[in-house]
Structure prediction request, 305 residues.
Amino acid sequence: MGRSEQPLERDGSPSREFGFWLRDLRNTSGLTYNQLARRSRYSISTLQEAASGRRLPTLSVVAAFVVACDGDEASWRSYWAQLKRLEDYAPSAIQPQDVLPPWIRFAPNADPDTASVLVADDWYLESLEVALSLDGAVPETVEHRIAVAVKDGVRELVTSISVPRITHDQLSPHGLEAELLHGGVLTQQQHPHESYFRYVILLPRPLRVGERHRYTMRLRVPPGQPMAPRYVQVPHRRSDHFKLTVRFDSSRLPRIVWRMAGVPTAVLTDRDPNSERLTPDRFGEVSAEFHALRLGRAYGVSWRQ
Prediction:
């Protein structure tokens, strides 16, 4: 008998993304792992490991998994090959490119290089506006979001946030304080991995397809916990608009601030950026705005003291 399936937190890595979409394929098919095992002739534990996100499964297991779920085998083989190439190279050798899963489709006649994508989700993010304050007792954000339902009956929204450790940070454990200011009720606050936090928001009522819903969250880094010198959004679902305002302490401004627009996550920690520089105003603020964000890429602001 296979083990119970653990929650999978997406972090943009090839293995995690592949595991996520395999799980999505199985859920869409309606098959249990027991039924999938009978169809594919692989054990339940092998199939669960393939969708675990810990590593890329072998191509033979992928093909059997996809065929059993009535998926498009050719598309999945191509997707697996692209992710395998990414894993086989050192992160610094990864070229700026999007590796889109088979479920993603573009609007008719859209330009794939600029269009927002439509994915197999219940909702997408129309807008995210973030105000990050670094001039107070602790780093704090207020985040205004607008979600749009793409199916009838959307009852909850799930938000995932990463708070990565910085070099020499030995504080244990890491934390993040979250508060939903309006737009529903925060029903679950999960910490499945050291640096990842997951929040489930129950909506006041189910959304209809095309209906927009506004909600606002406040997030605080606990006192004494260092914060990585950046704030980025890495979308894993359609995201149309992102605006970020960072307010630094005007008495100790960073030496350099730069804008990141669609960069690979592998270069987030680079200390010698080749990006647009931003200059804080007399109040210590910088702003950056982005449209039609591309899946798996990083958008935001980074700085160095």
The chain is about 20% helix and 35% strand. Residues 87 and 121 are 26 Å apart (CA to CA). The first helix runs from residue 14 to 29. Confidence is low (pLDDT under 50) at residues 90-98, 105-120.
